[in-house]
Amino acid sequence: MNEKFLAEISDKSSGERFSAFPEGYVKGRTKYVIITGSVMSGIGKGIFSSALGKTLKDRGMNVAPIKVEAYLNIDSGTLSPYRHGEVFVLDDGTETDMDLGSYERFLDTGLSKDNFTTHGQIYKRIIEKERAGFYQGRDVQYIPHVTGETKLVLRNLAMKSKADIVLIEIGGTVGDYENLFAMESVRELIYEEGRENACLVNLTYILEPHHLGEFKSKAAQLGLRHLMSLGLQPDVVVCRSERPITGNVKEKISMNANVPIEMVFNTYDVGNIYELPLFYREQGLDSAILGTINLDRKFPVNGSKSLKDWTARNIVEPEKEITIGVAGKYTGTSDTYISIVKALEHCSAALKVKVGIKWIETTDLEKDLGKAEHEMSGIDGIIIPGGFGTRGVEGKIACAGHARKSGIPFLGICYGFQMAVIEFARNVCGIKGANTEEVKKDAENNVICILPEQEEVEGLGGTLRLGGFDIKVKKGTLAHELYGKKEKVRERFRHRFNVNTKFIDILEKSGMVFSGMAPSKRIMQILELPGHPFFIGTQYHAEFTSRPLKPNPVYLGLVKAALKRKYGK
Ligand code: GLN
């Protein structure tokens, strides 16, 4: 174990073993852009960082993002979607914060565990090292060991990705007690790398209280002062506000934070996030940042034709309008289903159609299952998203049933796929009490049961069937058509249960087609109902691979079918 840890650091002779430099690391080869937030959370730091990343990438740079979360969880897999939004799954199975989805979509690139870390991961590694005797008798300290381990993670990403820029997003807000060590790590990183190799950006918030009708920058000033009291001098300040700020706000920020006024920027509500990369470009934000790290001339703008084109293709004037129902149990916060919302946006741009979402709370439906039909009147298609546990299940089954019977285009995602199987088993195959083991552990007719490899699994963290897997698509099916006649596709999964193989025969005999399967295991991965205008379920989360200008085929199929239902073509 000691050897394993030793292999990755450059200074093996150190008696204290806190070298924060990976083997072979060359300073200045990769530059760092570090993004922190002040005043408050929820101001869109993730969107800002990913849109900025897109602007930088558009100049021909290789940008590797990383989100540093301050929490002690090892990953986001065990977090409640109510509190933290969706759990996003990477191809390698890492369960991350939803910001990683935003990075993948804006940068149009696949990310891995190297692009995401938490304090939990960092502490775990330190404790493993300590138990392995790695520190050679030294007392293990927050400084240099926690900060060192954090810097090692950041530099390892630089080494592995060979990026021109590592874009670091520090989770949380300046002043949070819990991200103090991330801040200190960043301070050390900037010092060690040299100011010409690292640019510190602070995204702050300018208040505009309604009762005053003017901008107030005091909270931002205090946030910036706090940042500076940590030894962190921002190079660039970006003021987030609802409306464009007035000039005097920039002056105040500039004077208070030692930042020249031309390095103070403003990002306000633009109505459409796809405008942001070009908006930053037009303000000169990317050039300002690159100027501080001497990359401005190395990567010139080249007229930004591609960014203009990208923006225009993502923001289109809709010619038609449809409504898609999303029937889940966390409908109070759309962040829970953010990738689904994004996947629909991608279809919207591709098909020039405005896609409205009607949230259907399935827990409410359980009191009166007949209400499903009423709630679904007026929608042109329905999605039953992923989910866990018992609450809302019967409501989802009722929605799947109504969609099946009334020809409403249907897309079941993961738990939604399983709900469609249960509904079909109960009402078409006549299997009494058909259910999932997740709801009724020992029921006789559990058409959905635990995956064989999951039977022995203990604990919750990182134990589901996770990440990208290949899917064998059956020729001549709807799925085959949707995926452009490809016979093998790859999508991302996050589940513990699957279709019980004992029931596959009867389901198929009654008309359900399993059009996608795992290549070498009997795991059903896509289902469909021929004869229905559009009824498809995927055991995977098709939304995780949808990208601007490259909508996921299953979502595209749903929106096309909804258009056909409403407009007849
Ligand atoms: N709860 C189901 C399972 O574990 C579905 C999971 C999901 O929808 N992501 O199999």
UniProtKB/TrEMBL annotation:
<dbReference type="Pfam" id="PF06418">
    <property type="entry name" value="CTP_synth_N"/>
</dbReference>
<dbReference type="GO" id="GO:0003883">
    <property type="term" value="F:CTP synthase activity"/>
</dbReference>
<dbReference type="InterPro" id="IPR017456">
    <property type="entry name" value="CTP_synthase_N"/>
</dbReference>
<dbReference type="InterPro" id="IPR027417">
    <property type="entry name" value="P-loop_NTPase"/>
</dbReference>
<keyword id="KW-0067">ATP-binding</keyword>
<dbReference type="GO" id="GO:0042802">
    <property type="term" value="F:identical protein binding"/>
</dbReference>
<keyword id="KW-0436">Ligase</keyword>
<dbReference type="InterPro" id="IPR017926">
    <property type="entry name" value="GATASE"/>
</dbReference>
<dbReference type="GO" id="GO:0019856">
    <property type="term" value="P:pyrimidine nucleobase biosynthetic process"/>
</dbReference>
<dbReference type="InterPro" id="IPR029062">
    <property type="entry name" value="Class_I_gatase-like"/>
</dbReference>
<dbReference type="Pfam" id="PF00117">
    <property type="entry name" value="GATase"/>
</dbReference>
<dbReference type="InterPro" id="IPR004468">
    <property type="entry name" value="CTP_synthase"/>
</dbReference>
<comment type="similarity">
    <text>Belongs to the CTP synthase family.</text>
</comment>
<feature type="domain" description="CTP synthase N-terminal">
    <location>
        <begin position="31"/>
        <end position="295"/>
    </location>
</feature>
<dbReference type="GO" id="GO:0006241">
    <property type="term" value="P:CTP biosynthetic process"/>
</dbReference>
<dbReference type="GO" id="GO:0005524">
    <property type="term" value="F:ATP binding"/>
</dbReference>
<dbReference type="InterPro" id="IPR033828">
    <property type="entry name" value="GATase1_CTP_Synthase"/>
</dbReference>
<keyword id="KW-0665">Pyrimidine biosynthesis</keyword>
<feature type="domain" description="Glutamine amidotransferase">
    <location>
        <begin position="335"/>
        <end position="560"/>
    </location>
</feature>
<keyword id="KW-0547">Nucleotide-binding</keyword>
<protein>
    <recommendedName>
        <fullName>CTP synthase (glutamine hydrolyzing)</fullName>
        <ecNumber>6.3.4.2</ecNumber>
    </recommendedName>
</protein>
<comment type="pathway">
    <text>Pyrimidine metabolism; CTP biosynthesis via de novo pathway; CTP from UDP: step 2/2.</text>
</comment>
<keyword id="KW-0315">Glutamine amidotransferase</keyword>
